């Protein structure tokens, strides 16, 4: 059974998806249909062997053979010289499933998510026109340094693997716009990634990050930064304890907040030194001070109106209102609230 349709652009689509096919022989397809077919859909079947007859479609540009049971691709696939998009999600392919010459093809989009890759195939690293690479939901343990040689890449999706580190060479992908590394085991982000000047989206949620390099704030085109589910965020949110002030601190706060005058000769030297250590509460609406006892307060703040980062500041008590709004340019804020001094507001980038 075949479904055949013509698309507006003048190309042709051959759709043989959802047919429960266990094998496929396209030799009987007429020469004319082979010449005009540009998109071939074979997803959601039961194919375990890549059909060699697919390679007879010389004008094929899009091939989707997802949700089958493929384990290897045939040598003849390199005959598809016009193939631009190759989608083979949810099969049984690994790094040994590809012919040697696969790297010489002109493919710009590869989606092999949901397979059993433990390494990125060497052939992929030689695809000089590759723009979109998806290898999510595999078993990758590392990102090869040679990934930096695919300078045409615009989107790299490696979420849902076992990756523990990011190679600095990734920073060579100056045209990269979307980098998805969520749901891995990554522990740190190399500062070299700040050379990814075109980056719009950086997805790092559900990893093991305990810090971010400060340089990441220089990614001026970044519109989305996802960090949830990392120790960087989770630990800070849980670690908001408050130890009640001692009698010494309460006395010191009273002296400082009420501007009670004293002379150094009136007090022991250690108390004079202690009073000199008073820190003003960063809330511009509060006149209080603190010494050792303070509230660590986490606020997720829109950075430049583009993405949210965890910031930490210290307040004199739990009852003190946070001086930071989620929108630092909100019209509802006072001028003082927008101009909290840098020494009273600390970016939490280290876990």
From TrEMBL:
This is Leucine rich repeat containing 58a. It comes from the Eukaryota. InterPro entries: Leu-rich_rpt, Leu-rich_rpt_typical-subtyp, LRR_dom_sf, LRR_domain-containing. SUPFAM superfamilies: L domain-like. Gene3D superfamilies: Ribonuclease Inhibitor. GO terms for cellular component: cytoplasm. Keywords: Leucine-rich repeat, Repeat. The keyword Transferase does not apply.
């Amino acid at each position: 059974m075949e479904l055949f349709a013509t698309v507006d652009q003048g190309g042709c689509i051959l759709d043989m998806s959802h047919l429960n096919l266990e094998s496929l022989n396209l030799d009987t397809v007429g020469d004319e249909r082979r010449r005009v077919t540009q998109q071939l859909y074979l997803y959601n079947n039961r194919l375990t062997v890549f059909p060699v007859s697919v390679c007879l479609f010389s004008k094929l540009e899009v091939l989707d053979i997802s949700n089958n049971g493929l384990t290897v691709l045939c040598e003849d696939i390199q005959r598809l010289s016009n193939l631009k998009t190759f989608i083979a999600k949810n099969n049984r392919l690994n790094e040994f499933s590809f012919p040697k010459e696969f790297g010489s093809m002109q493919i710009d989009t590869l989606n092999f998510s949901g397979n059993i890759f433990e390494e990125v195939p060497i052939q992929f690293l030689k695809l000089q026109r590759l723009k979109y690479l998806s290898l999510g939901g595999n078993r990758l343990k590392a990102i090869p340094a040679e990934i930096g040689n695919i300078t045409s890449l615009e989107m790299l999706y490696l979420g849902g693997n076992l990756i523990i580190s990011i190679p600095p060479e990734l920073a060579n992908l100056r045209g990269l716009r979307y980098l998805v590394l969520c749901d891995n085991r990554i522990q740190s982000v190399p500062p070299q990634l700040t050379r990814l000047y075109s980056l719009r989206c950086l997805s790092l949620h559900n990893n093991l990050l305990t810090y971010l390099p400060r340089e990441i704030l220089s990614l001026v085109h970044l519109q989305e930064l996802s960090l949830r589910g990392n120790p960087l965020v989770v630990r800070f949110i849980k670690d908001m304890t408050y130890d009640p002030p001692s009698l010494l601190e309460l006395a010191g706060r009273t002296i400082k907040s009420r501007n009670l005058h004293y002379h150094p000769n009136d007090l022991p030297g250690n108390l004079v030194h202690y009073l000199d250590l008073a820190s003003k509460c960063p809330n511009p609406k509060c006149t209080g001070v603190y010494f050792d006892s303070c509230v660590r307060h986490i606020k997720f703040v829109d950075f430049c109106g583009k993405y949210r980062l965890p910031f930490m500041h210290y307040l004199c008590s739990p009852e003190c209102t946070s001086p930071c709004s989620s929108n630092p340019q909100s019209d509802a804020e006072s001028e003082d609230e927008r101009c909290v001094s840098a020494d009273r507001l600390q970016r939490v980038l280290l876990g």
